[in-house]
Amino acid sequence: MDVQLWTYIIVGITFAIYIGIAIWSRAGSTKEFYVAGGGVPPLANGMATAADWMSAASFISMAGIISFGGYDGAVYLMGWTGGYVLLALLLAPYLRKFGKFTVPDFFGDRYYSNTARTVAVICALFVSFTYVAGQMRGVGVVFSRFLEVDINNGVYIGMAIVFFYAVLGGMKGITYTQVAQYVILIFAFMVPAIFISIQLTNNPIPQLGFGSTIAGSETYLLDKLNGLHEELGFAAYTSGSKSMIDVFFITFALMVGTAGLPHVIVRFFTVPKVKDARVSAGYALVFIAILYTTAPAVAAFARTNLIETVSNENYSEMPSWFSNWEKTGLLKFDDKNNDGKIQYVADKEQNELTIDRDIMVLANPEIANLPNWVIALVAAGGLAAALSTAAGLLLVISTSVSHDLVKKQIAPDISDKSELWIARGAAVIAVVIAGYFGINPPDFVAAVVALAFGLAAASFFPAIILGIFYKRMNKEGAIAGMISGLAITILYMLIFKFNLFGETTSADWWLGVSPEGFGTIGMVVNFVVSIVVSNATAPPPEDVQDIVDNIRFPRGAGEAHDH
Amino acid sequence: MDKEKMKLYWKKNLRFLTILLIIWFVVSYVAGILLAGPLNGIKIGGFPLGFWFAQQGSIYVFVALIFVYVSWMNKLDKEFDVDEKE
Q1: A439 FRET partner, CA 20 to 30 A, in A71, A420, A431, B51?
Q2: What kind of architecture, by CATH, is found in domain A3-313+363-448?
Q3: Each residue of A279-329: pLDDT tens digit?
Q4: Are the CB atoms for A102 and A399 separated by under 8 Å?
């Protein structure tokens, strides 16, 4: 059977599963819609969190980024896993004990102010919309590459599927489809990785093959790769080329940003107990780590395979995958010296091959000559990763509107039933807007994803941590801290990322910190301003201090509730 | 729960957090970034050690840290009688 037929079959089966789950798990109340009724078992929540978190970028792009960046790729590997330690130790159990539906709920109650609630809603909406646009685009891209469907039609199909289970089932539908999506995406990621690891190193475990010798020789894979890099003029694979201070700051901003992302935090509101919130963060990280420790191995394998296949070889003798991917424009060859051979080198003047990083995962099975069903599986995995993240984000958007704005501020007397309909309506509008951005992607999408992490790091994280660990923290401090953290981070991005005030280069960065890493500094500013302002103003009321005392121990958590 | 007992419970929790977050910082920021250069001189199999911490080791330790915290806290909750009823 050819690849396309396989892809239709496998993608068709997975979509039927998602729709089946959506019908089975319709939400009947706002509580089911917002937090899946608060009864999700911790293991299921761990899987759902992993799928929620791992997006099209983790599945399709990350191994490619590492492949081209070598050591530098560690900022994503550590940044996007280390945040779970912060979540499990500093946030999840306390927010679960607090027991409300959304992150802005915490801000509104802990800082006894609708201004704080509104600032939180705006941050949540901004972060979520930024992210979701990329996911819908990812769905379209997978469809167009594997099924030769027009990108726009791919986005429509993705919208229809997400619409079905997010709008009908809310958090309940999303949770159980995410469990299924996790299984599909991890299987799709691991199968080709294991095959390639065996081919290259005779070791079926990619994490070990990564550090083994190449099959049939005494040379270690990484030594060989470093040698190839040196020959072609690239920086050594295991050392990278970013400055140490920048690696430090980017990693930190990504970790803290991860811990502050609302669609991840709300997943911990869905488990029955505080104890479950702690352990499900552990399960989530196990499930994430399976992919995150395999990705750098895949990156090194793919890099070695690629250089060995193309470097200084005759263009006319390239295998068929080469021309397949040339057609998509993701691979470009320009024979500058007309010798008919491919020169792939670091020097831009002489380099003849341009490679899109996404190819490293998408074309990997073809490069390694794997069977057609494995290639189809990768398509289904990419779709699962994009759809599961999109759904989680859409839920945050719809609850922000129906719960945090309408129920908590505009019309508090609204019935549960009407609130549920508003939540569904908001989800519909959010799907449409996300689809629009998927079809007409603004140029700034890639740039603002870094912004999303920086903003979460500079706004949410310090306010939540201080709200739990610093009883003296009051609303004046929190609001001033969030606004100053956000303002300085946005300003830095505008100057150095978007060049709003004239062209800038990396030499102009403050302390050598890139815009991607600046969220760390925004976070420090937030902490300092919060504490200073808080100490200059009146302490929080007695009943708020009691809330803080109460969330610090597990007993009496009960289920997530409205009031 | 009385105030003194609560204070002690919280102090113990903070001590756990401090210990675990120091390890968290050491495996990622110290071993994987600040000292990655010198550590790369040491090899485990085919891995330069600093590179291994940055792309593999730190992640394994992160997972372990969460489970250690869970088990410490479950014990502490029981000891102070603030655990949740089954």
Answers
A1: A420
A2: Up-down Bundle (1.20)
A3: 999 999 999 999 999 999 999 999 998 898 888 899 988 888 888 788 877
A4: yes
